[in-house]
Fold these 4 entries.
Entry 1:
Amino acid sequence: MTPKEHFASRVLAWFDQHGRKHLPWQQNKTPYRVWISEIMLQQTQVMTVIPYYERFMARFPDVFALADAPQDDVLAHWSGLGYYARARNMHKAAQVLVNDWNGEFPASQEGVCELPGIGRSTAAAILSISRGEPLAILDGNVKRVLGRFHAVPTWPGERKTEAAMWQLAESYTPTDRAGDYTQAMMDLGATLCTRSKPSCERCPVQDDCDALASGAPTDFPKSKPKKPAKPVRATQMLVLLDTHQETPQVLLEKRPATGIWGGLWSLPELSLEDDLVQLTEQRLPVQVQSVTSLSSFRHTFSHYHLDIVPYQLDVKATQAVSEEQKYQWFSLEHAYELGLPAPVRTILESAQGQSGTQTLLEL
């Protein structure tokens, strides 16, 4: 048995006995279902993804339903998962699949990689898990397993190191049971070969692991160089609530298609230095009746911290808004059905609960 076959056979034997086989996306493994799970699982834990995946598949059971849906609906079902470019690209890719491929995934890895938001490793995962194609993946879990098995002393994000690890991944990927092997490698990294406190004593390839032999398995592969401390930004977020209408309405702002929270509905914002009442009335079609302070909190993005200082403003609309404008009035019930960033949802819930609040001004 070659080293490649020996490695794969041990990993598959472990998977047969200990691997995860009952996750929602592991049932009826079509390319579409695998694709949705792979995108959701990027930078997100399995237990977090499961309820989102189940709701998403109930609403968009196939690529035609996803392609035909309004983007707002797609983003609403993604709300809370973060990294919203994933959902926007998924929606675009579904439309490409329907318009150019009659709803079928391309047969080649290169063809799948041409779809928005799908890279080499994700394309390989889709085709290997759903169709059994012998294609190597190299996600974070696989990088960690192979990086420790070979005691890679450099950071996998470096181009030279990543290229070498792709070669390793391809050299170990078996021709038979490629889909199970792909899932097994992801499971191995997620459940045993974890970032800290790996369970080396239960690992199926421990006998040949160079990192374990070194006595310091968590030293491999080298960690990503530390970044400088994240900068901190601050903003005032405004819950503009008009209770003078038959059903109380909240004013929301449609974010630009790209950038942070792209395409989602959010709350109007002011800088901390802005005069809350004066600038609100200047910029928005409202007359402010009273201002109530809500609990401040910090939300962290990948590149910076955002300190959010929210206020509820009881207002009266002074003019109508058209559907073409970026500001729209929604009932609170309808607002919760939109694609909302998680902090905005939290603020709206706080405004309804009115806990920890203080009325600052009545006009």
Entry 2:
Amino acid sequence: MTPALKTDELIDDPSTRVIVCCGSGGVGKTTTAAALAVRAAERGRRTVVLTIDPARRLAQALGLPELGNQPRKVEVDGFEPAGELSAMMLDMRRTFDDMVHSHAGPQKAKEVLTNPFYRTISSSFSGTQEYMAMEKLGQLAADGEWDLIIVDTPPSRSALDFLDAPQRLSTALDGRMIKLLAGPAKAGGWGLRKIVGAGFSLFAKAVSTIVGGQLLADASAFVQAFDSMFGGFRERATRTYELLRSGGTAFLVVAAPEPDALREASYFVERLAGESMPLAGLVVNRTHPVLADLPGAKALAAAETLERSGDSPLAAAVLRLHADRVSIAGRERRLVARFTKAHQGVPVTRVPAMPSDVHDLAGLRQIGEQLSAG
């Protein structure tokens, strides 16, 4: 029998310090994260929710005009939690800037921040968003202001890329191309020629053709300024990675009862297991439970009888709707059963589909109650 995911026990446990919601796009991760945060705050936790979703649904649902790169306390009419709730949205560039300031002296930070190559990679380098998410999580944990941090991750498989981000950035900055770029200043201006040897001219011409001569110079200057700071970056990322693997962290995989979403959920579960990350369970959003104990076939037969007699067309329509609902619910049960068979022991909770989009605290509270119901 599949165990029930008890989210109230999870958020009430003082040893739970971080909850990470991950899953494919469009399955309700942001709503799930916000609903858990509201419920945790109302049950006495000092909670902050971090969204990496650029859409502004979280701010709107919490009654805030906007979210920034620093936590903002939620203070709206009708919300008087026993604990406290703050919310924020990751600003990748500002987080990178803050990180540079924290790891460098004023002059070195100025060299990095004004470098055109830095301005490019701080907003578009592969893996930067995930690395900055790790950095911001680490900052929030180090602050000690909150006893529960809830993270809403990017959509699709990139939701787990922040697990790889420190190693990817480390590999990139320790790679041969970066060493070539850093070479000139480290060897009195001749390092690059010495490393490449007789092929220097061909190398320089090829790289300049690809990235442009000025960008090549900017990149070399950036690496020289950045190199002394990278050790601190790597240390912070390592500490955050260990935080994610600790007993105080819980991963919630969020899915919809659809084949693609549950296939992605299986990937997340397997990836988390491979990384020894603590999985709390699966949240299946937008399910369609049957509201009456009437088999679909009987409902259809009754609807056909009413239609032939011409009596009560409204009742016939309701019976047909019920039969459709039974069919949808059966399909969803089979899909979830396939997942639970492949991942035995993973706790599951189901959240019924809402009649309309969640856009306020009342809706988030309702989602929170459904999450706790198992």
Entry 3:
Amino acid sequence: MEFDHVGIATRDAGALADLFDDLFVAPIAHEERFDGMRVVFLELSGGGYLELLEPGDGGPVADFLDRSGPGIHHVALGTEDVAAALDRARSLGVELIDEEPRPGAWGHDVAFLHPRSTGGVLVEFVERTDGQ
């Protein structure tokens, strides 16, 4: 596994993208609307991304913002095989949010582990399907 990205919940992805680009020289690598959200990936020069999550109407990120305010939402680790990573987590007794990989932003296959089993951290497995 390797670091892929940190997901950050925000109410204004554009403003935060501008700030992070100025602070960290982290330009926009990819932007899309996905699952009712605006999702912006900022590329870090040392590798990996910051993923800015701006919710539309409702959804888990909107609920997170209402409950916790803006900030780190999840940590994502890259893997060559999300299904195998889920099997390993399952064998270790880790509670899964996703029993099987599902489509995620940027066309990747993803799956989440429940924070109750991972020290309070929402963990995402990412299998890049497009070479990114």
Entry 4:
Amino acid sequence: MMWFTADLHLGDTNILHDMDRPFDSVEEMNRKVIDAVNECVAADDRLYILGDFTYRLPLAEAVRLRERIECQNVTLIRGNHDGDWEDPDVPQIWEDVRDYLEIAPGYAKGHRLVMSHYPMLSWNGKARGAIMLHGHIHSRGDRTNARNRDRERPIYRYDVGLDANDYKPVSRDQILNFFGL
């Protein structure tokens, strides 16, 4: 199964009050977010983190947090708060690190999946049913996603960020079902 999330901001004390996250401390947020990932995503599933895995954490602590995620197949799509994970001196904790990624239509019922930390107004295949997955905007609840769906002609753009998805990752099938695909 394919899973997506973004904007974990592990270690970020500011995100607790800036986004009114329902955690009493950054330690509780780190634990509950990682627990939610591990409850949803199996070790042999594929997880895409669309940016902002941590914020202002020492590298060693970021590595320890990543190691607590049981999924082995994790790709990081870099966000504005992600460091240089491709430096040869940095532990290789990701299967892959990208700024942008497209997944061929054969993996999502004929729909191309286009991934970036940042939402786009237009993307490869938009007019042909491609689905843009992103984070960055910290939507609260599914208002933004519902607005994209609830139109005469839906916009297949989905915020996979924690704040928009009850602090849990979202599966490919959940996203396809959301749009009725």
